[in-house]
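Task: sequence design from structure.
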């Protein structure tokens, strides 16, 4: 019963924050334009500050694990190639292929990783997730562009990809956090306090915005590709990744990070990228909405299962 309650405490706040966002949009306290502007602010200011501070205040002896970093990168690449092979075999529509591949391998790790790990292990463990963010986000972005460009028939623009990575606010926040942590520089109390206060806005506001973006009238996709994308991300990915992680000896906070990496819903930006790159954006948006809602239940189940088996 204790593990059930702990697992419930992990997912309930995320669900309630999304519900708040959905309600305030429904009763017209905010509109689409406000949500879009606020989301931009969260992505460019608050989330980078959260990642920066989690890295800057982390204990490297606990947070930095070369084994975890290498496995995370290898797992993302392996999941990408596995999704590529499977989707090419079962889906005929090129506009859907890149969308489905991206949905399966690309996790919304930034939004889900830190709150889940801090709920289970406290804020002192958030550095583990933040350091993974620093290496996972560039790889996600590169592979997402590759998957969409291949089936659009376009030429992959390496310079544009590199520019997007270098100018990504989350990458900048991660890099600054690592530099200051390694330098041993101590932030002045007034600046550290300000960054701490602003960083605490990131997670709740991001979930509220995510809930506000849910628009069920936009669910226009066929049920088959929608189920492939949602089940591939929330069920197949963790079913493949978690046993391998356990066999390799990952436990505790490290295993929770991997659980979120394998089992969180697709990144919201996957919908935007599909729009910009002539893919099936209706399918991408439908997968994000349904998977984000369903993930509340699947993340609960994966957390409960790992707690019951004493791996976390």
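Answer:
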């Amino acid at each position: 019963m204790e593990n059930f309650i702990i697992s419930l405490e992990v997912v309930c706040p995320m669900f309630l924050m999304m519900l708040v966002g959905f309600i305030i949009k429904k009763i017209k306290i905010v509109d689409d334009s406000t949500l879009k502007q606020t989301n931009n602010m969260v992505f460019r200011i608050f989330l980078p500050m959260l990642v920066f501070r989690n890295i800057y205040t982390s204990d490297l002896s606990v947070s930095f694990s070369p084994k975890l970093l290498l496995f995370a990168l290898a797992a993302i690449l392996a999941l990408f190639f596995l999704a590529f092979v499977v989707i090419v075999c079962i889906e005929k529509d090129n506009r859907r292929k890149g969308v489905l591949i991206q949905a399966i391998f690309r996790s919304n790790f930034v939004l889900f990783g830190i709150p889940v790990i801090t709920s289970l292990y406290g804020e002192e463990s958030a550095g583990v997730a933040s350091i993974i963010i620093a290496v996972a986000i560039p790889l996600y972005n590169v592979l997402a562009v590759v998957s969409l460009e291949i089936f659009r028939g376009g030429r992959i623009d390496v310079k544009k990809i590199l520019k997007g990575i270098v100018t990504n606010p989350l990458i900048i926040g991660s890099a600054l956090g690592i530099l200051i942590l390694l330098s041993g520089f101590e932030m002045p109390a007034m600046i550290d306090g300000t960054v701490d206060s602003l960083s605490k806005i990131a997670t709740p506001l991001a979930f509220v915005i995510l809930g506000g973006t849910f628009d069920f009238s936009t669910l226009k996709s066929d049920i088959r590709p929608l189920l492939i994308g949602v089940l591939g991300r929330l069920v197949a990915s963790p079913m493949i990744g978690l046993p391998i992680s356990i066999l390799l000896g990952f436990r505790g906070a490290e295993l929770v990070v991997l659980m979120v990496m394998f089992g969180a819903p697709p990144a919201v930006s996957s919908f935007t990228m599909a729009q910009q790159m002539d893919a099936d954006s209706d399918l991408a948006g439908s997968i994000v909405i349904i998977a984000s809602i369903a993930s509340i239940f699947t993340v609960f189940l994966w957390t409960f299962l790992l707690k019951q088996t004493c791996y976390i």
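The chain has one domain: 2-308.
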